[in-house]
Amino acid sequence: MQKGSVYKRSNGLYQGTIMYNGVKKVFYSRSRSDVCEKMNDWYYEMKYSNVNNDNIFNFSDYVYRFLYTYKYGFIKPQSFDRLESIYKCHILKSDIDVPMYKLNDLIIQKYLNDKVSLNLSQSSLKKIYELIVSVLSYAYRRNDISVDYASLLVCPRSKIETKKIDTYTSDDINLLESTIRDSLVSKDYNTYRLFRYSPVFLLMLHTGVRCGEILALTWSCVDFDNRLIYINKSLHHCLNRDSGGTKYIDIIGDVKTDNSRRVVPVNAVALECLQYLRSISTSDYVVDNGNGNFLKLRSFEQTFKRICEYCGVKHKGLHALRHTFASILIDSNVSAKTVSMLLGHSSVVFTLNKYVHVDNDALRSGVDSITY
Asked: Cα–Cα distance between 348 and 311 in angstroms, integer?
């Protein structure tokens, strides 16, 4: 809101005059908008410098304090790494990195809208939006800003189409399974070494467990009698803050969400894989590094990539095993609720949106089936 008065002098300059608590200030410029901006800046600096110093913090400083006060130590390490990355890459030294008293919904919304031109995914846009909204809501509750800007903001839509999930074909699966079975009895040391714990990849394909979940799985969580595995922890690849936040470390912690803590039944193939892995195991971990400890994520990923190359199967990543498991279940008309529980998704809606695609024929069939 405009404070004070502005008029154009005979010499072409604009003069702005403003008062606050008996203090008068005059500004001059060839631009009316420049004078107005200077007057508003001075007004808010005078208003807040002695009342609430949080208002003269830059937004990035405010976000930093929010993260390290209310997020660090209270959320999973990898989740905090994601928020810190947003702060560093998208907020620090950005168009909204201005004093808090200068922020308004138009500035912030324009900043969010401009992010679309960077070809960010919808997921990335949503994460940026959610962090900004969280910080602004907190600032409003603390009376550090006078308007609830968070309630006015809209998350923009990405121009990038949702990435199609990668799955392995039935031919890929058959080739992987046959090659793994043959290699486990190979007399070639290098081949055997590469495929030593390869059945775990088939186990993932037949259970849908996440990569981090299988690497954190211990034998105490495997029930051979009832053919069940209990998922209650996961391996996370996150920043090692003891190293100054420049290196990454693998740690075992909690699962991704509350629904990720689940019981997964194993079929005959999965049971056979578990029995083999148990027979060669020398540690508490279902997949170990040969020295009694869990296997690191990067080593696990690289091994699977090499196995795919060996088999002549296009490498689509470890997570594609989980996608393949889910897609096969959906194609076999297993209910979305059951698939969601097996995968440990946060909601059935997520499962439906990700894996269930209804074509026009199915829609027409559904409508035609209605009778009254």
From this structure: 35
Segment 270-279 shows an average pLDDT of 95
The values of phi and psi at residue 221, to 5°, are -100, 10
- Angle of helix 319-331 versus helix 348-355 axis, rounded to 10: 90
Q: What is the pLDDT of residues 111-134, one digit of tens each?
A: 999 999 998 989 999 999 999 999
> Residue 88 corresponds to which amino acid?
K
List the one residue out of 92, 84, 104 whose CA is nearest residue 150.
Answer: 104
- Cα separation of 16 and 59, whole Å? 27
**Whole-number average pLDDT of the chain:** 88
**pTM of the entire predicted model:** 0.75
SS3 content of the chain, % helix, strand, coil (to 5): 55, 15, 35
Beta-bridged to residue 264, according to DSSP, are: 229
pLDDT band at 50; cut points 50, 70, 90? very low
Q: In Å, how far from its chain's centre is CA 153?
A: 21
How many Cα atoms are found within 13 Å in the side-chain-facing hemisphere of 290?
6
Handedness of CA 66, 71, 77, 83 (dihedral sign): negative
Closest CA to 317 of 227, 240, 205, 183: 205
Between strands 222-223 and 247-253, the pairing is unpaired
Residue closest to 321 by CA, chosen among 340, 334, 304 = 304
Burial (CB < 10 A; 0-12, 13-18, 19+), residue 367, is exposed
